[in-house]
Design a protein that fits this description.
alpha/beta; eight-stranded parallel beta sheet; seven-stranded parallel beta sheet; 26 helices; globular; binds iron/sulfur cluster
Length: 766
C-alpha cells in the first residue's frame, strides 16, 4: 500500500492549476525580461517604508498538501500583503483571466499570513508596476481570514485529488521501472555496454559522450538504461531530444516496445513545433480568433484528465484527444509537459535561448535526465540557436510602410543605425566587427522594441501587421544574443540595403553568428542530472567537447562496431580530385568508378556530392558514358512525399544509383538494410565551402583553439562522410562497399578520422 506522504506544491503551481479560466490569450503583451522583473520588484519594495517585509517565506497546509511560496511584500503596520507584477504599459490591458490568476496568488498569501499571524482580516493588494514609466497601479481588497481560508481550501481541494493521483502514478511508475526488463531475448554486440555506461552515468550524476556505431540499437539501449536508473536516482523526467522526426519515432517505438503505456505505467508525450501542431494556421492564439483557444481553460481540466488517463500522447493521440475536448492540441501538449514522465521532442526544447522544457525544469526543481540523439548535429543546431540577425531590409520596409506613431517609434533606432553605418569603413559585402556592436546599441534596440510592443499590444481595431511583429520578435532575440556577445561569436555587418525608393542612407544588416556554443550551453548541462549524447560520429571527441562545452568530468565511451571489416570494402580512388578546379577534368574518371562498381556488383547504390551543381554534372556525365545504368536524384527543396519516393526506389534486389547531396536529407537517418543498399560513392570530403563567412569562422576558431581549419572544415566534413557511409552496413548480415572518391582521403590526417573498424584500401588506378 502506498504510504500517505506530504505533497509539496508551490503557490504558483497551485494557482496555475486551479485559478485559470476562460480563453487562452497569447496575443503578444510586452513583458519584461527576468532581470528587468527582478529590478522592478526591487524598485517597488524599496519605495515602501521601514518595517516592510520583503520576500516572505510562507507555507500553509491542507491535509497532506503543503503549499509553499514567497510573498513579494508585507506591510505589518497597514496589514497589507502585496503581490507585485512587473509589466510594460497600461495595467488596464492585463487580460481578465491573467488578473484572476494574479488575485488568486495574492489571496493565497493573504490566507497564509492570516493563519501565521492570527489575523482576522488583511488587505490584499495587487501591484502592477510599469517598468518603463515607473508607475504603480495598485488594486486592493480587504478580506476576512474566513473568506481567504475558504478560497484557499477550495483551490487545495481541487488540486489535491489530482496531486494524489499523480503521486500514486509516480509510485507505480517507479515500481515498474525498478523491475523493467530488456525487451529482447539478448542484447546486440555493444548494446549491453552502452546501456551499462548510460546507467552508470545516471547513477553518478555525470554526463556521457557515447560514440556507438550504427546498428547496435542505441536508442533502445539509452532509453532502457535511463528508465532503469530513474527510481534510484529520483529522476523526475526523461527527455529524449532529437534533430529529426525519424529520431522521435525511434524513441517512441523503443518506449512502446518496453511496454509503455499498458504494461509500463509511463506517461509519454511527443512534442511538436507550434506550426506543426496548429489546427488553424490562419488564426491567432486567442479566443476572438481561434475556436480552440476560446474557453480553453474552462475545458482544460477534463482534457488534462483524459490525457493523463491516456498516458500515451504521441502526435496523433494528443491531437484526437484535444479535438474531442475542443482545445488546442499544441497548448494541451504544453500543459501535459508538466505531468508526463518522458518527453520526446526537438533539441530546441531544452537548448534554445528560451527553451520551455529547460525553464520548466528549473522552475519545478525537476531532476532531469537527457538523451541527445545523433548528437553530432547539436553543434550546428546550437550555433544557429545562439545566432541572431537584425534584418535591415525588413526594418526599412516596415518603417517606410508604417503608420506615423509606429514610424516615430522606429526613428531613434533608424538614427542610431544610420550613425553607426557612417562610422563603418566603406565596404560592399559583409565585414566583421571585431569588437561587436557599440555598448548603447542593444539599449537603443530594446527601447525601440518596448515602444513598438506597447503600440502593438492587443487593443480594439485592426490586428497589427504580423511581419512587423515578427521583426520585433527577431529584434528582441537579437538583443538577448547581443547581450551575451563574446569571443565565442562573430559580429558582422552587411549586406547593405537601400531604403525603398532608393532615397536615404543605406543600412547594413547586422548579424551575430555563434561559432562556439559551449559558453551558452553551460547552464543547460548544469541543469541536467545526467545527459547522454550519442551518435555514430562523435570523432574527434575533443572537437565535440570543445564546441559543446561539456563539464570536465563528462565521461566518454567509444564502442567497437558489431560489424566485421570483411563486411565493408572501403576503397580510396587517389586518381580523382573533387576540388572545385578539378571537377570537370575528373568527371569521366568519377562516373567510370560508379559504372565499373555497378557492373561488378549490380544493386542499389547511393552517390554523394558536395552540391546540387556537382551532382547534376556527374549525373549527366553518367548518363552519357553509362546510359544503361538506372539512376535517380535528389532535387532542391524536396517535400516529404518526394523524399519518401526517393527512398522507396531502394527496393530489395533493385538496381540503380541514387544521387544525393552530402549532409542533406539522405546522408543520415535513412535505414536501407540488406540488399536495399549495397554500396556508396562519396565524391567529396564534405568540407564546407571556403568563402568569406567560413574563413571568418576559421580565424576565430584558430584564435580560440589553435585548430581553426580542422574545426571549421575537416571535422564537420568527415563527420558527414562517415554518416553517409554508415548507410551501407546496417546489420551483421549486410555486405557492401564504399568508394571514397578523392585523393585527399589517402592523407594520414583524414584517414585517422575514419572509423577504426574500416579496413581502407588505396585502389590502383584502373
Ligand atoms: S489551434 Fe493554432 S491558432 Fe488555435 S490556439 Fe492552437 S496554435 Fe493557436
Amino acid at each position: 500500500m502506498f504510504p500517505v506522504v506530504d505533497i509539496a506544491v508551490s503557490v504558483r503551481t497551485l494557482c496555475h492549476f486551479t485559478a485559470r479560466s476562460g480563453d487562452l490569450d497569447l496575443r503578444f503583451t510586452p513583458s519584461p525580461t527576468g532581470v528587468e522583473g527582478i529590478a522592478g520588484h526591487q524598485t517597488v519594495t524599496a519605495r515602501r517604508g521601514a518595517g516592510y517585509q520583503r520576500e516572505l517565506a510562507l507555507s500553509a497546509r491542507f491535509g497532506p498538501l503543503v503549499v509553499q511560496g514567497r510573498a513579494d511584500g508585507f506591510d505589518p503596520v497597514a496589514r497589507r500583503v502585496e503581490e507585485i507584477k512587473t509589466r510594460r504599459g497600461d495595467a488596464g490591458r492585463v487580460p481578465a483571466n491573467h488578473q484572476a490568476l494574479h488575485w488568486a496568488q495574492a489571496r493565497v498569501y493573504g490566507w497564509m499570513l492570516c493563519e501565521q499571524l492570527s489575523l482576522a482580516q488583511i488587505e490584499v493588494a495587487l501591484v502592477y508596476f510599469d517598468i518603463d514609466s515607473g508607475q504603480e497601479t495598485v488594486l486592493t481588497e480587504t478580506c476576512t481570514a474566513d473568506a481567504l481560508r475558504d478560497f484557499f481550501e477550495d483551490l487545495c481541494e481541487r488540486y489535491f485529488a489530482w496531486a494524489w493521483a499523480d503521486q500514486l502514478h509516480r509510485h507505480a511508475r517507479d515500481e515498474a521501472l525498478t523491475a523493467l526488463a530488456f525487451p529482447f531475448p539478448s542484447f546486440r554486440t555493444g548494446q549491453r555496454e552502452l546501456a551499462a555506461d548510460v546507467y552508470r552515468a545516471n547513477t553518478r550524476a555525470r554526463h556521457l559522450l557515447a560514440q556507438a556505431p550504427t546498428g547496435i540499437g542505441k536508442t533502445m539501449a539509452t532509453v532502457f538504461a535511463s528508465l532503469r536508473a530513474m527510481p534510484d536516482q529520483g529522476t523526475d523526467r526523461l527527455l529524449f531530444l532529437t534533430a529529426r522526426t525519424t529520431g522521435r519515432q525511434l524513441a517512441l517505438d523503443a518506449l512502446e516496445r518496453l511496454g509503455a503505456p499498458t504494461r509500463l505505467p509511463l506517461r509519454v508525450l511527443e512534442r511538436l513545433a507550434r506550426d506543426k501542431a496548429c489546427e488553424h494556421p490562419d488564426k491567432a492564439c486567442h479566443g476572438e480568433s481561434c475556436p480552440l483557444a476560446r474557453g480553453f481553460y474552462d475545458r482544460l481540466p477534463a482534457a488534462r484528465e483524459a490525457a493523463a488517463q491516456a498516458a500515451w500522447l504521441d502526435r496523433d493521440r494528443l491531437r484526437a484527444l484535444a479535438l474531442a475536448h475542443g482545445v488546442c492540441p499544441y497548448y494541451l501538449g504544453q500543459e501535459m509537459q508538466r505531468w508526463c514522465d518522458v518527453l520526446v521532442g526537438d533539441y530546441n526544447h531544452w537548448f534554445d535561448v528560451g527553451a520551455h522544457w529547460f525553464a520548466l525544469a528549473e522552475d519545478q526543481g525537476w531532476r532531469t535526465a537527457l538523451l541527445v540523439d545523433e548528437a553530432h548535429n547539436l553543434i550546428d543546431r546550437a550555433r544557429s540557436m545562439y545566432s541572431a540577425t537584425l534584418n535591415a531590409h525588413e526594418f526599412l520596409r516596415q518603417r517606410h510602410e508604417a503608420t506615423p506613431d509606429i514610424r516615430k517609434a522606429m526613428d531613434a533606432l533608424h538614427r542610431r543605425w544610420s550613425a553607426f553605418a557612417r562610422e563603418l569603413p566603406p565596404a560592399e559585402g559583409t565585414q566583421a566587427l571585431a569588437d561587436g556592436l557599440p555598448d548603447d546599441w542593444a539599449t537603443t534596440l530594446q527601447n525601440t522594441c518596448n515602444t513598438l510592443l506597447d503600440l502593438l499590444a492587443p487593443q480594439p481595431g485592426p490586428a497589427p501587421d504580423p511581419a512587423l511583429q515578427n521583426w520585433v520578435f527577431e529584434a528582441l532575440h537579437f538583443v538577448r544574443i547581443a547581450e551575451g556577445f563574446g569571443e565565442h561569436s562573430l559580429c558582422e555587418a552587411g549586406p547593405w540595403v537601400a531604403p525603398p525608393g532608393g532615397r536615404g542612407r543605406r543600412l547594413p544588416t547586422l548579424r551575430i553568428r555563434n561559432v562556439v556554443p559551449a559558453p551558452w550551453l553551460e547552464a543547460r548541462w548544469a541543469g541536467a542530472h545526467s545527459a547522454t549524447l550519442f551518435s555514430a560520429t562523435l570523432a574527434p571527441v575533443e572537437h565535440v567537447e570543445e564546441m559543446l562545452g561539456l563539464p570536465a568530468d563528462a565521461a566518454h565511451v567509444d564502442l567497437p562496431s558489431p560489424f566485421a571489416a570483411e563486411q565493408l570494402r572501403v576503397r580510396i580512388a587517389p586518381w580523382i580530385s573533387t576540388r572545385y578546379a578539378d571537377r570537370l577534368r575528373s568527371l569521366d574518371a568519377l562516373v567510370d568508378v560508379i559504372g565499373a562498381q555497378f557492373h561488378e556488383r549490380p544493386g542499389n547504390y547511393l552517390a554523394f556530392f558536395s552540391s546540387f551543381e556537382y551532382l547534376d554534372l556527374a549525373r549527366q556525365r553518367l548518363a552519357q558514358r553509362h546510359p544503361d545504368l538506372p539512376h535517380w536524384a535528389q532535387t532542391r527543396g524536396m517535400e516529404e512525399p518526394e523524399r519518401d519516393a526517393f527512398v522507396a526506389r531502394f527496393v530489395e534486389r533493385g538496381q540503380g544509383v541514387g544521387f544525393a547531396v552530402l549532409g542533406g536529407a539522405f546522408g543520415e537517418g535513412i535505414d536501407l538494410p540488406g540488399e536495399r543498399l549495397v554500396g556508396a560513392f562519396i565524391a567529396t570530403l564534405g568540407l564546407p565551402q571556403v568563402n568569406a563567412e567560413n574563413e571568418r569562422m576559421r580565424e576565430r576558431l584558430q584564435q580560440r583553439t589553435g585548430h581553426g581549419y580542422d574545426h571549421t572544415y575537416l571535422f564537420p566534413g568527415l563527420m558527414r562522410v562517415v554518416q553517409a557511409a554508415g548507410r551501407v552496413i546496417r546489420s551483421e548480415q549486410d555486405r557492401g562497399c564504399v568508394w571514397l572518391l578523392d585523393d585527399r582521403f589517402a592523407r594520414a590526417e583524414v584517414r585517422r578520422l575514419l572509423p577504426s573498424w574500416w579496413r581502407v584500401e588505396v585502389a590502383p588506378r584502373p
